[in-house]
What we know:
By secondary structure, the protein is an alpha+beta fold.
Amino acid sequence: MAETTxxxxxxxxxPKALAAAKEEAKPKVVAELHxxxxxxxxxxxxxxxxxxxxxQQLSITGQFIYNAQEEDTTLIVENLGFGDIYVSDKPxxxxxxxxxxxxxxxxxxxxxxxxxxxSSSQPVASIIEIK
Length: 131
């Protein structure tokens, strides 16, 4: 009888868990676009055409370099996997640097020609070029 009660409780809790998982899966936008040293722009105000999309699973502690396919584009990086991604438009990446860190489902935009990424795990990174 206790087993039947536990099954009912789990069945009743399933819709709540599904709703919570859907809410957690929504992208959390880091609302700034990095343009040079200290200049940032909101990603909400970003307009343009998507000229390239790229997805890459990062290796453990290896550095990945992405070169933009078009000049004068905005690169938006999103962390699609579990684990932290550290991303910068300069090669000075440091695991643990909070300013360079992207958590699961976070996005960050860069006005750059080249991006450098690293991770201490193997998350998947999505890069979108907008011109």
